[in-house]
From TrEMBL:
Domain TauD/TfdA-like intervals: 7-284
Name this polypeptide is given: TauD/TfdA family dioxygenase
Keyword Iron: yes
A GO term, aspect molecular function: dioxygenase activity
């Protein structure tokens, strides 16, 4: 009933700001209640996302917990699942327990693009090639990501996604490469938006101690994740430094409290996660998918 009377106002806020905060008693008290809100705000919802852990008491497979990541470090800004072919237009976060810290900052990526220098814009205009090695001692396993033990099923899925792949000589490690847009025209405003996951994939964005530890084990091109320009060339470290500086300056934070939900336009706003301590329990859902090849570009 609440959504029936307020959906137009939510859509207006999303179109203007790229995000909207919803507060209400009992809004996130149980998964079923949150799932109904998520389906109304972001449906149709993605199911069984292998990148996120599912919530045990969600029979629909549409409600997840946030990306597992060290609670002592900041998870940098990213537009969800933009390494894949289908991008969720909307994401919803719901708070059950706040912990100490752990805010979810968001950044308007049309504003980020507007601040970028011409050199960075030229690099990003080529798109991004995301490179992942699955089945290593670190990172995810290809069986988990593709939910199969059959390499043939994996290869067919890669073909559907427009993903190139290669197996190592033992068939245990799968390397995938996915070329995706980095800059699109935001459907709501018509302005260029840097919609990508570069700061999740580029080695320069790693904390220095994490980078140094990986470097003891692997060459940079062997890291579990990496990314290049869409044309195959390197993304200079200076571009990553510029992005981190701009996002740090422009990020906006709405404090968490129980029964607060935030709906985010994933094509326009990236999100991050601050370090935290204590018990933090958030629910997450994503939906309204769009094929990234069909999005307008500058």
């Amino acid at each position: 009933m609440w959504w029936h009377h307020n959906s137009a106002a939510v859509a207006e806020h999303l179109g203007r700001d790229g995000a909207v905060v919803i507060d209400g008693d009992g809004l996130c008290q149980d998964v079923a209640t949150f799932q109904r809100l998520a389906a109304a705000a972001c449906g149709p919802l993605a199911r069984d996302n292998p990148e996120h852990a599912s919530i045990d008491d969600d029979p629909t497979g549409t409600i997840n917990s946030p990306t597992p990541f060290s609670r002592t470090r900041k998870l940098l800004w990213h537009n969800e699942n933009t390494f894949a072919r289908l991008w969720p237009r909307r994401i919803i976060f719901g708070c059950q327990e706040i912990g100490d810290g752990g805010q979810t900052p968001t950044v308007d990526m049309t504003a980020v693009y507007a601040r970028l220098g011409s050199a960075a814009r030229d690099v990003l205009a080529t798109g991004v090639t995301y490179v992942r090695r699955l089945g290593m001692d670190l990172g995810l396993d290809w069986r988990q990501v593709y939910r199969t033990t059959d390499p043939t099923v994996v290869e067919r899925a890669c073909e559907r996604e427009g993903t190139t792949w290669r197996w190592d000589e033992h068939g245990g490690i799968l390397t995938t490469e996915q070329r995706r847009p980095a800059v699109i025209l935001d459907p709501a405003t018509g302005r260029p938006s840097l919609t990508a996951q570069i700061l999740h994939w580029h080695p320069r964005a790693l904390d220095q101690d994490v980078h140094d530890a990986l470097r003891l084990l692997y060459e940079p091109h062997e890291f579990p994740k990496g990314c290049r320009r869409g044309d195959g060339g390197p993304i200079p470290d200076a571009v990553i430094d510029e992005l981190v500086e701009i996002c740090t300056d422009l990020e906006e934070v709405v404090p968490w409290k129980p029964d607060r939900a935030i709906v985010v336009d994933n094509l326009r706003r990236s999100h991050a996660r601050d370090p935290y301590s204590g018990v933090r329990r958030l629910l997450v859902a994503a939906g309204d998918p769009v094929d990234c090849t069909e999005l307008a570009r500058p």
